[in-house]
Design a protein that fits this description.
Blueprint (H helix, E strand, L loop, with lengths): L1 E9 L4 H14 L3 E8 L7 E9 L11 E6 L2 H7 L3 E9 L14 E4 L2 H8 L5 H12 L5 H11 L8 H14 L1 E3 L3
Parallel strand pairs: 1-4, 4-5, 5-6
Antiparallel strand pairs: 1-3, 2-3, 6-7
Helix pairs in contact: 1-5, 3-4, 3-6, 4-6
């Protein structure tokens, strides 16, 4: 197994955290992992992306030009990374803030309205966990119990009371992701 993922959006959407949690989850399953963040100087509100590789083999380089999966959370990232998904790969996007929806017919496209679902929970901060849950429904490359451990590892102890809410958000994401047919 070798999964090469780009997660991209605005700073403050939990892009880097989502990647870190995926990476921790892979480590807990004895996988080889690479986590490479990239963000502008603005941090919150600027663009941010993270490349995550989870593999059975050693990861030779964290630098990639093409991805098995792209998780896109804003229009700028859609414009930049839609063409970087490998033939037959997967693109997952949150419909909030996307003005030009993906058009490729040579990849599978999934939509998850994570911003809307996170708002329904009353805690917008779980947005990234809704998205991650959707991804794991489509590509269960790590076990849910390891994702929960990854959340525990990445959250400071003072926020561990939010772990059940994050777990609920993961399950919501698994329920509300759907495939988009491009005609």
């Amino acid at each position: 197994m070798n999964e090469e993922i780009i997660i991209a959006g605005f700073g403050g959407q939990g892009v880097l955290s989502m990647g870190k949690i995926l990476a921790y989850s892979g480590i807990m399953q004895d996988k080889e992992v690479s986590w490479m963040p990239s963000y502008g100087p603005e941090m919150r509100g600027g663009t941010a992306n993270v490349t995550v590789i989870i593999s059975d083999e050693r990861v030779s380089s964290p630098v990639l030009n093409e991805f098995d999966t792209a998780i896109i959370l804003n229009q700028q990232s859609m414009d930049k990374f839609e063409t970087s998904v490998k033939l037959g790969g997967i693109l997952i996007y949150d419909g909030n803030g996307i003005t030009r929806h993906p058009k490729r017919k040579d990849i599978k496209i999934y939509r998850i309205d994570a911003a809307e679902k996170a708002a329904e929970t009353g805690v917008a901060k779980v947005f990234n966990m809704v998205v991650l849950g959707g991804f794991l429904k489509i590509k269960p490359i790590v076990k849910l119990e390891n994702v929960i451990k990854g959340i525990e590892k990445s959250l400071p102890a003072r926020y561990h009371n939010l772990i059940p809410l994050n777990e609920k958000a993961l399950k919501i994401g698994m329920e509300y992701i759907y495939e988009v047919n491009i005609n």
